[in-house]
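Lab notes, practical 5.
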Amino acid sequence: MTTVLFVTQIVLTLILTVLVLLQKSSSIGLGAYSGSNESVFGAKGPAGFLVKATFTVGLLFVFNTIALGYLYNKSHNESVVDTIKTESAVPAAPALPSAPSAPAAPQAPAEQ
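Output from the prediction step:
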């Protein structure tokens, strides 16, 4: 299921990118390629159609993103931290060479 949604996400991304680039802006952009045939989209030209199509595809993109996030979170509920072993990762420090032992303290004579 997530594979279908991933493919849909890629297709929606490409369509949304093309729709945004085709819209007329202050510096025409790629909208110059669709400007000669404005009568196909109605009296207002392609502006109304492209705005509605961009909004619709953008809304589908958002819903698809939410669905992908929900399904991925539901199927992958393990954390990377769960895979860490609980054994000590740091090896024990090697024993230092022992210092010569100090002479024992004198003891008091035992009382009788």
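Observations recorded by the TA: DSSP finds two helices and no strands in the chain. The mean pLDDT is 77.
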